[in-house]
Amino acid sequence: MDIMNLSTPTPNEHSSVMVWGLTLLFLFVGFLFFGVGFNTDFILADESSKVVINEIAWMGTKESYNNEWIELYNNSETSVNLDGWILKTNDGSPEIELTGRISAKSFYLLERTDDETVASILADQIYKGGLANKGEYLKLFDEQGNLIDEVECSDGWFAGDNKTKQTMERSVEVKLQQPHWQTSQNPGGTPKKQNSQLAEEAVEVKPKHPQGIITYPGGIVVNEVLPSPEGPDAENEWIEIFNENIFEVDISGWKISDTVGSVKSYTFSKGIKISGKGFLLFNRPETKITLNNSGEGIKIFNPNGEIADEINFGKALLGQSYNKFESQWQWSENLTPGSANIASEIKKEISEDSAPEIIEKNLEENKNPLLLSSLLGSPLSKKNKNPLFKLLMIALSIAVCFGFLILFLKKKLKTD
């Protein structure tokens, strides 16, 4: 009695088994490659907020006042890719485009001019541009333009000593995300080492306000406006503001104003607060501010009368908002009141013959980088910062190579 067929497999069966075996092997290798090799890039989105400005030698060193340096610290459990990140001051000097990675629970040292600034320690990056002794407003942005950390010392450094060259360092006694600063106990600071500890309990250091003037935080900005809605302007116009900070800001007494025509201003009432990374929407019936469709400007003032932010735009497009997306302003049909802006979709088909002409026109006029990007099929930056795009391109390349390899092996087995 035949219980099972024990016949010898044919050459075709050998070929099929080998092809399927190779296919499964390649799929398994691909899974390991993408599942493990690229997993950290997706974790970084959650961990990037743990990278902070940790220590600042704004006064230089005993060898030279030009020997300034800045230290970052990664408080997360994973390494963070800093490619595309920017550390800059409000006046643009310095403005540092960061590169490389910062390991988990590790430091990243930036030295001014050359690697001799801190002679005994290797710098992670060299930069140009000096910090003013009277104070600076430092901001750290990730590759998407999100504000990750900031040090608001426009009215004077919170800590540090220019005579003894003791640095300004973040206190180790409090949570790293809170702006608590102290003067280092070590002359010359603690580059790439844990910050010093004070004998007394660390306290929050606040700038001294001369003559009772209060210093208000920056980062309260205009984010999106709708000047020409499809419905009645008087009912449907609105202005959206955004808090770039990671902490809540009380905007009681702040003002928002237009700049063209019959100028009107609106004062935020007592108790109005905007959460960290949060949005607030103000409609025209509430503010009484009329946005001119032929062109307009908007300003935000803090209670000291200082301009916190301002924007200007030309002729408004019907039914489109003027919004900020990835550090660029654009007109968009994608209205996002009270939420994050998204890229404008370009619905008009562009032929191959007309594309070069449009691209050349945009380059000359320097108008819509998002439009130009869509024509070229990729972002205008030297590096495509979208990890999904990078992943897709690599996966497609590997799939094509594997396909050719499988066809070659199958053909070779048939001839054998």
Structure summarized in a few sentences:
The chain is an alpha+beta fold and 416 residues long.
Question: Quaternary state, please?
Answer: single chain
CATH architecture grouping of the largest domain: Sandwich
Report strand %: 25-35%
Strand tally, please?
Answer: 23
User: Shape, please?
Assistant: flat
- Compute the gyration radius: what is it? 28 Å
The CATH topology of the largest domain turns out to be: Immunoglobulin-like
Strand ordering within the main sheet = 8-7-2-1-11-12
| Low-confidence sequence ranges | 1-7, 32-48, 174-178, 199-209, 346-355, 361-385
Q: What does the largest sheet look like?
A: 6 strands, mixed
Explain what this protein looks like in three dimensions:
A hairpin with a 6-residue loop joins β16 and β17 (265-267). The strands form six sheets. The protein has a six-stranded mixed β-sheet, with no helix packed on it. A five-stranded antiparallel β-sheet has the order 19-14-13-22-23. It folds into three domains: 12-38 and 391-416; 51-212, Immunoglobulin-like; 228-332, Sandwich (Immunoglobulin-like), CATH 2.60.40. α1 (11-37) packs antiparallel against α7. The protein contains seven helices and 23 strands. The protein has 416 residues and is an alpha+beta fold.
What is the topological layout?
Layout: H1 11-37, H2 39-47, E1 51-57, E2 69-74, E3 80-81, E4 86-89, E5 95-97, E6 101-102, E7 106-112, E8 125-127, E9 137-141, E10 147-152, E11 166-170, E12 181-187, E13 220-226, H3 233-236, E14 238-243, E15 249-250, E16 255-258, E17 265-267, E18 273-274, E19 279-283, H4 284-287, E20 296-301, E21 307-313, E22 321-325, E23 328-332, H5 355-365, H6 369-376, H7 387-415
Parallel strand pairs: 7-8
Antiparallel strand pairs: 1-2, 1-11, 2-7, 3-6, 4-5, 4-9, 9-10, 11-12, 13-14, 13-22, 14-19, 15-18, 16-17, 16-20, 20-21, 22-23
